[in-house]
TrEMBL record:
<dbReference type="GO" id="GO:0004180">
    <property type="term" value="F:carboxypeptidase activity"/>
</dbReference>
<comment type="similarity">
    <text>Belongs to the peptidase S13 family.</text>
</comment>
<keyword id="KW-0121">Carboxypeptidase</keyword>
<dbReference type="InterPro" id="IPR012338">
    <property type="entry name" value="Beta-lactam/transpept-like"/>
</dbReference>
<keyword id="KW-0645">Protease</keyword>
<protein>
    <submittedName>
        <fullName>D-alanyl-D-alanine carboxypeptidase/D-alanyl-D-alanine-endopeptidase</fullName>
    </submittedName>
</protein>
<feature type="signal peptide">
    <location>
        <begin position="1"/>
        <end position="20"/>
    </location>
</feature>
<dbReference type="InterPro" id="IPR000667">
    <property type="entry name" value="Peptidase_S13"/>
</dbReference>
<dbReference type="Pfam" id="PF02113">
    <property type="entry name" value="Peptidase_S13"/>
</dbReference>
<keyword id="KW-0378">Hydrolase</keyword>
<keyword id="KW-0732">Signal</keyword>
């Protein structure tokens, strides 16, 4: 009898486990028809939001129900939240791994051409595939230029940000992230300079000279001045790009000769493509830490997918529009670059939420959330929106320029709803942390009450 009981109990347990594995998790209770009157009152009464241009759109991802639209039809400068458009284009146009080089083999000679891949010797997201391929080629190595249809700076970029790490020049064959890195490990001592090609171009500031920056670069030349500091520091500054400098850097780092050449296909020749990092590695770094160079280069990588004649961010933007991929956004969008550095970009909070919903439909939810910065986890949100109950509850993309601070992404509510939001703040005189803390207060209330 006991044996029969154990057999029956075991079968029942097995059936229960099978049912648990096949039954989808219980859906959260439906949201009420008008659940956010209290949130509107909070927004209107906020002393932090009162004096500047602010807007919020909040939408339930599962149903598409708009929960709140507060100034959501008005236009804002999106800053780096505009990288969500770049992410959308990249997810639609790029393969699973980054196209690092186009190349031809003629006899014992290797001809290479840039695709816009920014990872060659990049300090934060380096790929060794192209480097090893070129270094180990046993015969002559020839670098061919890729036509580039645009200036190295984007339209509407701030000209006097040229010496800062966040505004490197764009290009078809980036190397070292187009920046020089300085490591001052001992206070008062000259910093270590990487790459070493730039070491003769670095000098100490005159005695008594001061600067709010560790390093300053001349406007038109790769000449740098460093300033003593009582503490150790690390900094980086962009360099002026040129074909001659690219050749010199390649020769120095590959420890071999590299000759310039022309990319002219012969009858029957078909260029090959060398692939590097998994595409999500590049996308994740771009979005989480809001890397402007990586974002700009993503559009150039997309341009390379459209043909081998030239690279152009504008070409990709026009292609996305012609394909109708932005159809369904409630408002037109001014889109001029990949990073959001330009103040010529304009969009609305409800546009950003519609774009988030498109992204959610395009790729599986776990993959999408893994590409965004997670509150309290990494990137630009590592010190904000900390996990509650040991679980992250907000994933997003920040966007900050002088007097502008925005956040777009997803909130997982306490009841289990996934909400898409766009919270935009323009033309404020408060420090960005003040704006961030108010957004955090209000979005935490959304998490708790919906």
């Amino acid at each position: 009898m006991r044996r029969l009981f154990l057999i029956v109990a075991g079968l029942a347990l097995r059936a229960a486990v099978a049912t648990a594995q096949t039954t989808p998790p219980t859906a959260p209770p439906p949201l009420p028809a008008a659940p956010t009157d209290w949130l509107l009152r909070e927004l209107e009464a906020s002393p932090v939001l009162r004096q500047h241009h602010a807007g919020l759109q909040l939408t339930d991802v599962a149903t598409g129900q708009n929960l709140l639209s507060w100034h959501a039809e008005q236009y804002f400068t999106p800053a780096s939240t505009h990288k969500l458009l770049t992410l959308y284009a990249a997810l639609r146009m790029l393969p699973d791994s980054v196209p690092s080089l186009h190349y031809l083999i003629r006899g014992d000679t290797l001809l290479v051409r840039g695709t816009g891949d920014p990872t060659l010797l990049h300090g934060d997201v380096p790929s060794a595939r192209a480097y090893t391929f070129m270094q180990r080629w046993p015969g002559p190595l020839v670098l061919c230029s890729t036509p580039y249809a645009e200036p190295v700076f984007g339209p509407g970029w701030t000209w006097d940000d040229f010496p800062y790490y966040f505004q490197p020049e764009r290009g078809t064959f980036p190397i070292y992230g187009h920046t020089v890195r300085f490591y001052a490990r001992q206070p008062g001592r000259a910093p270590v300079v990487q790459p070493r090609t730039f070491r003769p171009l670095v000098q100490a500031a005159p005695p008594g000279a001061t600067s709010p920056d560790h390093v300053r670069r001349e406007v038109e030349a790769n000449r740098y001045t460093w300033f003593p500091s009582p503490k150790a520091w690390v900094d980086e500054s962009p360099f002026r790009t040129s074909p001659e400098l690219l050749l010199a850097l390649l020769r120095d780092t590959l420890h071999r000769d590299v000759q310039p050449g022309r990319w002219q296909l012969r009858p029957g020749e078909q260029p090959r493509t060398l692939h590097g990092l998994p595409i999500d590695s590049l996308l994740r770094r771009t979005i989480r830490v809001s890397d402007n160079l990586l974002a700009e280069q993503l559009l150039l990588l997309c341009s390379a997918q459209l043909g081998h004649d030239s690279l152009s961010a504008g070409r990709v933007i026009r292609h996305v529009r012609r394909q109708g991929w932005l159809r369904g956004l409630p408002d037109s969008t001014a889109w001029v670059d990949g990073s959001g550095l330009s103040r010529l970009n304009l969009t609305t909070p409800r546009n950003q939420v519609a774009l988030l919903l498109k992204l959610h439909q395009l790729v599986p939810e776990p993959r999408l959330l893994s590409l965004l910065a997670a509150g309290g986890g990494q990137g630009t949100l590592r010190r904000a929106f900390r996990p509650l109950d040991k679980k992250p509850w907000l994933w997003g993309k920040t966007g900050t320029l002088s007097n502008n601070h925005n956040l777009c992404g997803f909130v997982r509510t306490k009841a289990g709803h996934l909400l898409a939001f766009s919270f935009m703040n323009n033309n404020h005189l408060a420090e960005s942390p003040v704006i961030r803390r108010e957004m955090e207060r209000l979005l935490t209330l959304v998490r708790e009450q919906l």
